[in-house]
Amino acid sequence: MMAMRSRFAPDRGLTGRMLLTMFLLGLLYVGFIAALIVLLRSVVLIVLVVAALLVAQFWFSDRIAMYAMHGRIVSPEEEPELHGVIDRLCAAADMPKPQVAVSNMDLPNAFATGRNANHAVVCVTRGLQRRLDTEEMEGVLAHELSHVAHRDVAVITIASFLGVIAGLMVRFAFYSQLFGGRGRRDQNTAVLFAMVMGISAAVYAISFLLIRALSRYRELAADRAAATLTAKPSALASALTKVSGEMARIPTEDLRTAQAFNAFFFTPALSAGTTLSNLLSTHPSLEKRLAALAEISERLGKGV
To answer: Which residues fall in the annotated binding site for Zn(2+)?
Structure first.
């Protein structure tokens, strides 16, 4: 969970939150599976299936994300400017250069994915390239590279997938009782099903809130790291403002298609509007991110 060695400033707050989130989720799911083993005799099968899916998603997370976002790896000859910015940032951060990819989507965004620094990909969309200048793009890419350096991409991938387990368990319980044959008419079936549903719903709700809290903090941590590395918090703030404003011009259907990857994006495809939405959002509000960057700018101006 510790950040890889680089010049990105270590973020003990982020590291501590990642460790705590994974610890709590681990306890939560150990208890969840133990309860289901007591309630459902054949739960071992679904546990094995889910474990296999988790390993597959973790191992191939970069390929899955690239396929879903229509991204492709590009060479320095194809995208010299983009590679040039990443080369400079990686040299400044003293970190391995990830693979560089471009998505043809007009949605202005960027994301980093991959299970570790040696299998990382940083992808930007054509929409982002068209809308940002070089300094703004540098801020966004520094933000994404900090996710790689802090290894929070892998943590959020695992944590997000664990939340799917509860939903799969509910479906398994439902169909096993619906088509189970023996005991299907037993009066205890309804009670058993209600117990499984209740436990699964509670586990999903708790894991959802834990993951969202970690996701919001990691975005603030990436903003801080990027602003410190580039010493240009105003450029990152400009990119945030510009991209958030442009989201309003993107067709809603395209935004909803990309919403599944909100946790990995530089900015969310659909922004939160209410207090409850902010609580459930994968990202802090734009106002909070801009305020944090303004503090960094003031601190850098004072030479602190």
So the answer is: 143, 147, 219
